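Honest question from a wet-lab person: if I give you the sequences of every part of a complex, can you actually get the arrangement of the whole thing, not just the pieces? Trying it with mine:
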Amino acid sequence: MIGAGVVDRVLHVENVKVRFGGVTAVNGVSFEVEEGARWAVIGPNGAGKTTLFRTICGEVYPTDGRVHLFGRDVTRKPAHSRAQMGLGRTFQVTNLFPNLTVEENLAIAAQARSKRRFVSWAPLRIRGELAERIESALSRVGLSERRLATVAELSHGEQRQMEIAMALANAPRVLLLDEPAAGLSAAERSVVRQLIEELPRDLSIVLIEHDMDIALELVDRVLVLDNGNPIAEGTPDEIRLDPKVQDVYLRDE
Amino acid sequence: MRTRWRSLAASTALLALIAAACGTPGGGTTTTTAAPTQTTAAPGGETTTTQAPTTGELEPLRIGVLQPLTGAIAASGNDAKDGWELYWQNHPTEIAGRKIEWRVEDTGGDPDTALQKVDELVQNFGAEIIVGELLANVTLALADRLADNPDVLFVVPIGSADDMTQRRRDEFPNMIRAGGWTSSQTSHVLGDWAYEQGYRKVATMCTDYAFGHEMCGGFVHVFTYRGGEVDPSQQLWNPLGTQDMSTYVTQLADMDVDAVFALQVGGSVGDFLTNWHDFGLKDRIPLLGGEVLLDNSNIRNLPPEVVEGLISSGHWTEGRDEPTVTEFVELVDAATGKIPSYYVAATWTAAQYIQAALEALDGDTSDKQKMIEAMQGFELETPFGISRMDSYGNPIYDIAIRRVEVRDDGRVWNVPVEIYENVDQFWPFTPEEYLQQPVYSREFQGNLSVGEPAAGG
Amino acid sequence: MKGPTGWVKLGLLVASLAVGVALPYLVDQFLVGIVTLALITGLFAMSIDLLAGYGGLVTLGQAGISAAASYGVAYMSVKAGAGHLAQVGVGLLAGLIVSAVFAVMIMRSSGVYFMMITLAQGMIIWGLSIRLTRITGAENGLPGVDRPEFLSLYWQYYWFVLAVVLICSAMLYVIVRSPFGLALEGLRESESRLLVLGYNTSLQKFYAFMVSGFFATVAGILLVYLNQFISPSSAHLTASALGVLQTILGGVGTLVGPMIGSFIVVYLRNVVSQDFERWPTLMGLLFIVVVLFARRGLVGELSERWRAWLTRRGLAVPLR
Ligand SMILES: Nc1ncnc2c1ncn2[C@@H]1O[C@H](COP(=O)(O)OP(=O)(O)O)[C@@H](O)[C@H]1O
Ligand SMILES: [Mg+2]
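Yes, you can. This is the full assembly:
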């Protein structure tokens, strides 16, 4: 970073509340993500983690509070505008284009932020930067051999990796990963873990992980939610020692 | 992904190929507008020469019949088909040396399909006469299509759009309503009769489309011409295909009127009449039916107590005690097990006219205008009684006020109560005064009690 | 060309084009007329396929759009007595304006809601065509829409329709293979994923609806000049549903399938019906058989079988 002390803040969540009817899913959460930082949001099931992501992405508008992206207030901006600004996300429940091939899935993701996505008068050709991005996403997640298979034909593990590949092909600056290892075996989990570790360092990441041990190894800062409420924030070491966090996780066991 | 490009390029090349190919046979077409020499090269050159030879073995007379045999009004369409086929089962199919061949085709009640089928009948089957259709709009579409073809005679026994033989008569030089009628023709008579009964204020309940407008207008026009009153706010219109008529019936029950004129079609008929009976209005307010409302095709499907005693007017009266009618009714009943509807009588009569014309012209059908002239000269004994034609090609009949009665065998039919003789489509006006008014529509009902400009006023 | 599949496709294309071009020399006027009709309703069904098969947006009001175009032409021809250029211009305008209005109404809906809205839209046009008597002639419709001199003969018009339908098919072929077409398939597969990737899916639906509406408009213009007549039944739900039926019969999302479905339906309705009165029953049975045993439609199922056959012989190449 140039200029001592001035670190770019890419994402700023300010006192966000989300209510669904009578249920308060997120209750006054704030945090700030600096460029290149790696955050984890942890907490038991139903803590409001996914809802927080949905709010950041614009799939749900908050009942109260503000969301800033790259210094701009995007609280009322639709999801696609935020994506155009460089926000990407993966889904806890796999959300791909099942009847399209791996390559086509990635092509949709790769062209999403270029003007080419409007082109309807010429056949699709993947060349140049888009092609490179697809290739690098494929090789990162190790699906190069499967490029012509439809996503529906992939195994669950491969589909989870596609979730990440899709986000990478989209070339975001901030990436929200919602339980990328959900439903995977121990062996598969370690593959995903390595994959996340090897993501480019200039990419800012917020990771939701149900499993505290995995999460804490991958990030520099952690936010803990319980029942919609933020109960702790700090470095992984601080969180490990935090009695409130231990309470929540012990109670949950 | 690159292969996509290649297949695209291949198909584009092909497209160019076709473009080039197109230039060869139709070459004359694209460069010069209409060189007469090109017709020899043009496809379809031979197919147009399907004229009958004038000497030697005579060509059969081919007739195309178009009726809705499927869809919402299939029952009526099949009645029409029965009438046509029964006629030829009971009459010689060779007349003046010409064999009669026909093909019946289904329009589904859809004008586009009818137009496609009529092309097929004329071009492929070689039909010289087209008989059809049932719905006014389909009939009009056919009339318009056939108007350009002087080699085809269009016989219209059912479709009754008024203007075809009135203001727009000249547009359809090769059309004649043998066995047919105009929608308002029978209603005119009912308007007069209603006034004679002492009714002075009448409400109407008609289906909101051209046929309903015309039938209703015929009644309103003559009834108010005689001095009766129709309050436009008491003219109810329901959309075509209304299933539930009860809301309309309750509205009618609250009106302070001497009688109600009603015209419904299809599924609305049963619902209307059943509600009318169930609400107790049948014994309280006289109901005057437009012809189709109480046609045998409708009343035969309803409980006798719902329809017994109801009044309507019609050119077709199945319970008329005259030999031509009773013989016809018995013949159809024996063949189909049903007392004939007017659809059966109409196509039967159309066939009768065609036979008579063929005999009169000694089998020479080459000039369709001669056929029309011949038909206009006949005085035929038909199931409708004596049928004559006015100079517009529309029949003049004795039209009856009819009452539904239960026969000894438990079935219902219409019997005449009073007969108006020699009623043409303009009755009781002269053609000249009548044709000055516009065709009946929802806006124009010929209502003289509210000062609408109309004929005879 | 990509493996055996490409050659088979090319062969079929060349063969059907050769027959198509030579048709007026091979069969009589009636059959040429039938094929003309099938080509036009095929284009109409393809416009439905673009939305339903690719975008996953099943429309039940497409006939409203083509009928609007037909009415535009017919009004200018019959009531205004304008020249053919003005007729086609007004037809295009009518179809595109109706498409645009409808597109704005549907751009935020999907699934069953999309179906219900389009159904209502179609019925609105139908209702208007009955109500606006002065413009549309109500039930009686507008007869007497004459073709220009150089297209007045049936075979001239056939070639014209063939050319227009081919050009439109080529355009559709490119569109579904374009970046936009691919994203449209994404819409069918998962709208929520598209949104977080940065696609404005409302805009995408608007555009897709307009493109589809354009081809429906062209079909409407071609049809009114073929029938030389238009009436409310052309706008009715039955007409829209028939287009969807043709699409399902031939194969949703295949483009060529709807065209083949259209040939089957036209053949049943206009040829088989001559000898077999219960043709609607036949069509119903065929539809049931297809839905039960060839869920992808005729073309979809054939190409799937073909792919499986190739795979067994180790000749498989991916379809796309
Ligand atoms: N669309 C919704 N409507 C109503 N309640 C919801 C909705 N989405 C989530 N919730 C509720 O909000 C709470 C938080 O859910 P979620 O954010 O999915 O938790 P997590 O991802 O931490 O497991 C849960 O109680 C859930 O039932
Ligand atoms: Mg969650």
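Two things worth pointing out. Residues A 20, 23, 25, 43, 45-51 surround adenosine-5'-diphosphate (ligand 1) (CB under 6 Å). Confidence is low (pLDDT under 50) at residues 1-6 of chain A.
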